[in-house]
Predict the structure.
Amino acid sequence: NDEPIATAIRELKEATGIDFKKLNVIALHTLPPVKYAKSSEVLNSFLVIANGEVEKLPLHCNSRVKKSFPEIDKWEWVKIDALNKWVHESQQKNIGMIKELADALKA
């Protein structure tokens, strides 16, 4: 029953080991919620823009599947232009907005 942002911050820590409070956050954007294509669930997504070399952070997954192996066992940092290939189909709808927000920071 957490707020979506609190859930996202907790999931970030569980899935990657990244502590949101330790990031040098420049901007936090709430993306439009999207409904999964094959269920009635809604995905709440957020874009965190942080200053620093987040790609150098050590990543590890604390959540386990059936208490035996990590839920996530591999990560890859990708450029925005490659997101379509890597994100879940429900999140692809937000890629245009993510690009716009990132480009606005460059200006």
Remarks:
- The radius of gyration is 15 Å.
- The mean pLDDT is 88.
